[in-house]
């Protein structure tokens, strides 16, 4: 019987992609952080990365990291914040998209945008009353733009009380990779639900060069029924949100700071992008 491999284990193949991007502490930083002969040496970068993935996948608190496996939880969290400040997690996401684009080609023609809410009881930034939970305090929202296969291209975090359309401009301007200008306008479509309907929001979509397709689910189903050759496209962004929710640290936001929560989302986006690269094994198990 094959031994069960846990979902947070980082494969050698994935680490080969991650290692070149890991921030390296300068000599001055090492002297400042650790005096000669004092304290323990810095943890190996791979161990730190595996600990971060462990937190992301299991949803445990940082201080609940297994000490026998990862050592000091505070040291892991400190390195996590250092890497976030250095832009490591966004850089990893960009690297994943670059490899995905090289191997499969980003499905630019049909893109989709939508937001999803989660509880955020401890959040001190980018949080607000949850309109779907009797206005209770402590809710956040993740706004996503995805390509035609559901791979995230842009990600913005806000309070739960911020309507999706209010962050539309931010989402469309925050795409982390560049696209060559399409030769024809018909090569750039954006699918959205009825929440983005309105003259101002349609103007925003068109200002970015998209042909807007803003319909509710009933209209989308009716179109499919009338013409079976029509392909439903907006659902891919909903699927992408479900992929994010498989990482339990993102189901309920316990990160107080926006930068920490955003970094975990960027890491998740990177994993999703790398998993879409064909001819590769799993980058992490599960």
From TrEMBL:
Organism of this sequence: Pelomonas margarita
Signal peptide boundaries: none
Domain of life: Bacteria
Pfam families: DDE_Tnp_1 (PF01609), DUF4096 (PF13340)
All residue ranges annotated as the Insertion element IS402-like domain in the record: 10-93
Domain Transposase IS4-like: start-end pairs: 113-271
NCBIfam families recorded: transpos_IS5_3
Entry protein name: IS5 family transposase
